[in-house]
Design brief:
It contains 17 helices and 14 strands. With 511 residues, the chain is of the alpha/beta class. Among the domains are: 133 residues, Rossmann fold (3-Layer(aba) Sandwich), CATH 3.40.50; 135 residues, Hect, E3 ligase catalytic domain fold; 88 residues. A five-stranded mixed β-sheet has the order 2-1-3-4-5, sandwiched between helices. Strands 11-12-13 form a three-stranded antiparallel β-sheet. Helix 5 crosses helix 14, helix 8 crosses helix 10 and helix 14 packs antiparallel against helix 15. The radius of gyration is 30 Å and the shape is extended.
């Protein structure tokens, strides 16, 4: 009886050697002094692949944190896509923690790649046969634990240093300052950069003494082509010409207490992007560029300007904050010749006077735009068949986008099932164990419990993420909502119209 061969296997056998990809990763906490430099990793992996007799088709290098899931890193995402497409037979990595420092992400990724028929090799443990390989699990936990310990040690050291009144962190110092370093080349304090400090004093003088607006200050600085903070510190990839200031950058300087001689050190909450409450900030005395009285006056003036700007907002612009110009800028409402308009902010922007960018978009009468939009919105909600078709298209696009997370969830479900089997086997063995064997089983039990907890947390996170999708019931609810909205569109007042538009999170682009 003839058996049909696997096309992929036949193709692999037809090649002289297997296709190998080398993946190397570094991050700021493990650089060359620990032997983790990219060239060092690549060289070891090349030698390993040569011993396997594999053909290296690609060498991937990435500078990214190992705490980020592989599928969310730029290069890691590329590697995962090649695995899914069947474009690789072997992946060679220097060490397990170069793949991931998150134990759950590590085990789930290894499982998915092995199921895709890819061999995974690391220079420290060799070929990985299973996601439950005991050496893999142990090294995965070590990498995950080391990441937490590194973060905690670093933050403890920074907090202690800040409490001693020393500037901490190797980041970019505020505009107007440079770092002062100790004998070990670690940041100790700030010293004033007079060429930049002069600009800071000029900004505060214009704002406090001459009552210039933030927008006008930015205009004056741009006219003078004074290098911006980002240009001086090399922090940002410039999209504008050199010497073009924004109001936001000026406002950032005006509200920084550092210029009055008090810099604040603060830490984030866990690994999130949120900062701790201001009560937990550590104030550190640094050289002042302006006097405290000037800074206090500037803060009082900022508060007054904020209050006045709220009072001056016109409430009769139905699409306020929702209209964009084709050039990419926002369109704001203004009153002219007894008519309301939506005009591109670039036309009145200070940078338009000094930059080459020009917007040719004309101001649009507000009553025309609002009338056309409301009529189109009513038509949109009346045509239920077209609305349902759009929803189904969005539903399919969302399914495609969430497919990697569904794959990860399936892998984690299997890992949880394996974990439960391991727990049962361990519990059975412990009933009759004694001495050293019992101690070893107890350690194994702790590892299984920790693994189960981490897998459960990740599963809950994925379930929450995947639950935010356009299910068939959600589509039905939206269509029902559309009918209700349509009924409320007949002769509505301004507040009802505005409330409905805000609920829909509308964005309008005017060409």
């Amino acid at each position: 009886m003839l058996q049909q061969k696997n096309p992929k296997s036949a193709l692999t056998q037809g090649r002289k050697s297997k296709r190998a990809i080398i993946y190397a990763r570094v991050s700021t906490d493990d650089q060359a002094d620990r032997g983790y430099s990219l060239p060092s990793q690549i060289e070891h992996c090349r030698q390993y692949a040569q011993r396997l007799g594999a053909e290296i088709i690609l060498e991937l290098r990435e500078d990214h944190s190992g705490a980020t899931p592989i599928g969310e890193r730029p290069v890691g995402k590329e590697l995962a896509a090649m695995v899914k497409a069947g474009s690789v037979d072997i992946i060679v990595i220097y060490q397990v923690d170069r793949l991931s420092r998150d134990i759950v992400d590590l085990l789930a990724t290894v499982r998915m790649w092995l199921r895709a028929g890819v061999e995974i090799h690391t220079c420290d443990i060799g070929k990985i046969e299973s996601e439950l390989d005991i050496v893999l699990v142990i090294k995965g936990w070590q990498g995950s634990d080391e990441r937490k310990k590194i973060l905690e040690r670093v933050m403890r050291g920074k907090a202690a240093k800040a409490r001693d009144g020393k500037v901490t962190g190797g980041g970019v110092p505020p505009y107007g300052y440079r770092h002062l370093y100790d004998a070990h080349n670690r940041p100790l304090s700030f010293e004033v950069v007079e060429s930049e400090a002069h600009i800071v004093r000029m900004i505060f003088d214009w704002y406090v003494e001459h009552h210039y607006s933030v927008k006008r200050i930015a205009l004056e600085l741009s006219k003078m082509r004074i290098p911006t903070p980002g240009e001086n510190k090399g922090r940002f990839h410039r999209k504008r010409e050199s010497g073009i200031w924004s109001g936001g950058r000026v406002l950032e300087i005006l509200r920084s207490e550092c210029y009055a001689g008090l810099w604040h050190w603060y830490r984030r909450i866990g690994t999130s992007g949120r900062f701790r409450a201001s009560s937990e900030h550590v104030p550190i005395v640094v050289p002042a560029i302006i006097d405290r009285e000037t800074w206090d006056i500037a803060q009082h003036q900022r508060k007054l300007n904020k209050i006045m700007s709220k009072r001056n907002v016109r409430l009769d612009y139905l699409l306020r904050g929702m209209v964009k110009c084709a050039c990419g800028s926002a369109r704001v409402g203004h009153f002219h010749n007894n008519h309301r308009y939506y005009d591109c902010v670039w036309r009145t922007n200070h940078n338009a006077q000094v930059e080459k960018k020009i917007c040719h978009g004309r101001a649009v009468r507000a009553d025309w735009l609002e009338g056309d939009f409301w009529a189109g919105l009513k038509d949109f909600f009346e045509n239920y068949q077209r609305l349902e078709q759009l929803l189904r298209t969005a539903q399919e696009e969302q399914r495609t986008k969430q497919e990697p997370k569904r794959d990860e969830l399936a892998a984690i479900e299997k890992l949880l099932a394996d974990c439960e089997v391991d727990a049962q086997d361990c519990a059975t063995a412990m009933r009759h164990a004694k001495g050293k064997i019992l101690q070893s089983l107890e350690l194994q039990q702790d590892e299984i419990n920790a693994r189960y907890d981490e897998l459960t947390k990740r599963r809950e996170t994925l379930i929450d993420t995947l639950s935010e999708h356009l299910s068939d019931s959600t589509v039905s609810e939206i269509l029902h909502f559309a009918r209700d909205v349509r009924e409320g569109m007949e002769n509505p007042d301004f507040e009802t119209m505005r409330r409905n538009i805000e609920r829909l999170k509308v964005v309008i682009v005017v060409n």
